Amino acid sequence: MTINVGVIGLGAMGLGVARSLLRAGLRAHACDLRPAVLAQFASEGGIACHTPAELGAQCDVVITVVVNAAQTEQVLFGENGAAAVMKPGSLVIASATVAPDFAIALGQRLATLQLLMLDGPLSGGAARANAGEMTMMTSGPSEAYAKAEAVLAAIAGKVYRLGDVHGVGSKVKVINQLLAGVHIAAAAEAMALGMREGVDPDALYEVITNSAGSSWMFENRVPHILKADYTPLSAVDIFVKDLGLVLDTARASKFPLPLSAAAHQMFMMASTAGYGGEDDSAVIKIFPGINLPVAKE
Predict the structure, then answer these.
(1) Each residue of 23-79: pLDDT tens digit?
(2) Active-site residue, selected from the candidate residues 171, 173, 241, 285
(3) Is the domain covering 170-286 a CATH 1.10.10.10 domain?
(4) Known catalytic residue at 173
């Protein structure tokens, strides 16, 4: 039996997820606010839907690959939302980075509509999304996993099953974002110091990526700085939000996170300075007295 799967949100990761579903032979639908992106997906064999409701009415599984809790709320329960028209027993895979309490409440709301939910944040970036090799931090009831089996196999290289209750997947994603945000901020600080001290930035990148100080984020984000390409694959404002979630989660139990707080302030400074919509590597622009690389002709 053909599974109808819908992806709401064709951003850097959502488009890769949708393409991975097509590649796996699933009947893939998609919804996005941008007509050009939808048209591109349709030209590749996907089914374009103009509202979440149009998508939800046709799909057994709906994956929300949006930015935050507010957008998740809107596409599921807002005007022309998907949830109200989905068939009982259908599944929502909620993949935005949200507060764990929101994920718990979302699962309860969907259950009142006789819908299943998998708390399923994603990690890995656009390249892994396109390759169908995302990492997924998931939690939810066994019925949700059974419904999601073919979909998860199509879009993810690693699926971590972290429990049978909603919210656990989101807790792990929040912790992942703590590290991701701190690593980006630290990479920017290190490169800024190197530039201030007159070290060739390309040489510095080469040395660090082959030394103990490297990280996945350093290797992935510093090339954006070296190319002066701040096209947002993940924007500064994403980490204003995500590190805010990290701090909110810890604040509830009075748990100190000094590095997260410092990194959050760095992203806040970058956003306030006008770089919120740029790639998160643009956090380096907050440092004074450095000459950043310029785009090569």
Answers:
(1) 999 999 999 999 999 999 999 999 999 999 999 999 999 999 999 999 999 999 999
(2) 173
(3) no
(4) yes
